[in-house]
Each structure stands twice: as structure tokens, then as C-alpha cells.
């Protein structure tokens, strides 16, 4: 795995450092508009944890028209929220992008289905709406694992109306979002989390360029450690400050949606089981996903995949799930 500076730098990671007025800001780029899935970072900033760690952090929202990878590679962001699959693809293309940590121990992606469906294998022959990213990541696995066909796959438009109108339809969703809309409208549904059926990925993985890692490795570790505390507070403590800052960035986000999302993240143990280290990654899970996505030729199988991530930074994490 990628080394981030050796024993001397490792000792620096543990040493407190007072914030300095001229300390450069670490710029985090999210993968969507501000929401509970980013809550730990907003909480850490609102609680002053980044400032206390000596690394000021700014948060910039992503969105449907934002090319996060382009901004990261162009030096307009230092860390971005992405995915394991994106990191593997970057390594295969020899892009200088590395996964440095993660938000969640499992993906929050799944399929919202009607009440008569209780397992993924029951969806064979049913129309399923998925987005472009899903077609390139979990869809080949669904085809291979459950015998689905491309004829089933339609375009997901981030709208639950087709689900309401078609009793056979399933839609790709996050456990925190469309199920909330369905609940608010008293629409019955079941939810099938992909990770529960074998598609094991970390969720909201944090990516940085090798240049940022080389220049600011100390700051990266301080950022990850403060973020882990922020996540623990946001899901298991008082989330008031984090929610307030989310709404500042995204005024359309309601208190009810945020509360539902936090409850959903707790329910699926998104941060890990009680007592597990928040933000941790390991070689075994990366190897398992690599084997999964290369089995059907979805991703090129080359030794380069091992450059997709490093466990150097997460080795300094210690905050555990409450």
C-alpha cells in the first residue's frame, strides 16, 4: 500500500497542532447537495473539531452538473467523496487518485420494491430503474448473481412517481432518501440493501490525489480523525449543529428528512457495529470488491488495482461507534 511518509510522519499524526491563521484550508467536495449522508463532516466543522485539530476545512457541495473527479484532478478540491469502484477505475486508468478513508462501512444504496417482493431474486423479469453509475457498478453484479437482463433496466430519474404507478417496478434508491418520500405519502414498500445481499462496498469513500497525500499527509490524518468524532456525534449524539450547517448550504433540506436519514443510517449500522472504529478500511474488503467487479470483465483486472487505496491514514483512527 501507499506509504505516507514513514515513521517520522506517523509520530507527527499523533501530536496536537494549534490552528494557525495562515494554515491552508483543506477543501472537501461532496458527492451531492448537503444532506445527512455528509453530516459527520458538517458536524465536525460546526463543533470546531477541524479547527482544534489545526486543519481548517471547507465543504463544497457536489451535484448533478458537477464533475468531481475533474475538480479533484484539477486541484480545485483536496478530498472528494466518491466510491470504491471509482477508485478502482482511476487506478486502472493510471490516474493519481487514492482512497484514503471512508464514511460508511457499507453502501447506503439499495432497491425500493413493492410489498410483495422480499428478496432480490424475486425481481427477475421486473423493470428496474437505475442511474448511469449503477449501470457501471452494481448492475453487472445483479445480472450475474440473479440472472437479470439488460432489458429490465430503465433510466432512473430520481422520481418515485413511476414506482407508484407500476406495481411491478423497482427503483434504485438510497436508504435515506426515496424511502422517506414514500413514507411521507403513505406508499407501502420494502427496501433491499445491496450490501445485505453480497455487494459489499464501503459507502461515501474519501478520495485524494497523490499530490495532496504527499504535501498534506499530516492534515489528511487530522481531518479523518476529526471527521470520525463528528460522525459519532452526528449519529449518536446531538446533531443540532451539523443539521443547522447542512440547511445553510441546502435550504431545501427539511428537519424531518434529516431525522429520518439519521435513523436509517443508525438502523443499518452505517458507521459499523458498536465498538468498531469509524472510517476504517482494510485490505480484505478491497480485495473482495476487486474480485467481484473483475469477475465479469466489468473492470480490467491488473495489479494496478492495489494502488486504488491506502490504509496508512486509517491506521491512526481510534474513535469507535457509540
UniProtKB/TrEMBL annotation:
Domain of life: Bacteria
Biological process terms in GO annotation: thiamine biosynthetic process
Signal sequence interval, chain numbering: none
Domain SsuA/THI5-like: from-to ranges: 36-233
Protein name as annotated: ABC transporter substrate-binding protein
Organism: Komagataeibacter oboediens
InterPro entries: NMT1/THI5, SsuA/THI5
Amino acid at each position: 500500500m501507499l506509504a505516507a511518509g514513514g515513521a517520522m510522519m506517523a509520530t507527527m499524526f499523533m501530536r496536537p497542532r494549534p490552528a494557525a491563521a495562515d494554515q491552508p484550508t483543506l477543501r472537501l467536495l461532496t458527492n451531492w447537495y448537503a444532506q445527512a449522508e455528509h453530516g459527520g463532516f458538517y458536524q465536525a466543522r460546526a463543533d470546531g473539531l477541524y479547527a482544534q485539530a489545526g486543519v481548517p476545512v471547507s465543504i463544497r457541495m457536489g451535484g448533478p452538473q458537477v464533475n468531481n473527479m475533474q475538480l479533484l484532478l484539477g486541484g480545485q478540491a483536496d478530498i472528494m467523496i466518491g466510491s470504491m469502484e471509482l477508485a478502482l477505475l482511476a487506478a486502472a486508468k493510471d490516474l493519481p487518485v487514492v482512497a484514503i478513508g471512508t464514511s460508511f462501512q457499507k453502501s447506503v444504496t439499495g432497491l425500493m420494491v413493492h410489498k410483495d417482493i422480499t428478496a432480490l431474486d424475486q425481481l427477475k423479469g421486473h423493470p428496474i430503474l437505475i442511474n448511469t453509475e449503477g449501470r457501471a457498478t452494481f448492475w453487472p453484479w445483479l445480472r450475474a448473481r440473479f440472472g437479470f437482463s439488460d432489458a429490465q433496466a430503465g433510466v432512473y430519474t430520481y422520481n418515485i412517481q413511476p414506482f407508484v404507478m407500476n406495481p411491478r417496478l423497482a427503483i434504485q434508491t438510497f436508504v435515506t432518501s426515496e424511502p422517506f418520500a414514500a413514507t411521507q405519502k403513505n406508499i407501502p414498500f420494502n427496501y433491499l440493501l445491496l450490501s445485505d445481499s453480497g455487494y459489499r462496498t464501503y459507502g461515501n469513500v474519501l478520495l485524494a490525489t497523490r499530490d495532496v497525500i504527499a504535501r498534506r499527509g499530516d492534515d489528511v490524518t487530522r481531518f479523518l480523525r476529526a471527521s470520525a468524532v463528528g460522525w459519532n456525534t452526528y449519529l449518536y449524539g446531538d446533531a443540532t449543529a451539523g443539521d443547522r450547517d447542512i440547511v445553510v448550504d441546502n435550504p431545501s433540506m427539511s428537519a424531518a428528512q434529516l431525522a429520518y436519514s439519521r435513523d436509517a443510517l443508525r438502523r443499518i449500522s452505517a458507521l459499523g457495529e458498536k465498538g468498531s472504529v469509524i472510517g476504517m478500511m482494510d485490505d480484505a474488503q478491497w480485495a473482495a470488491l476487486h474480485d467481484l467487479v473483475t469477475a465479469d470483465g466489468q473492470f480490467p483486472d491488473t495489479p494496478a488495482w492495489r494502488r486504488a487505496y491506502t490504509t496508512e491514514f486509517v491506521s491512526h483512527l481510534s474513535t469507535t461507534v457509540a
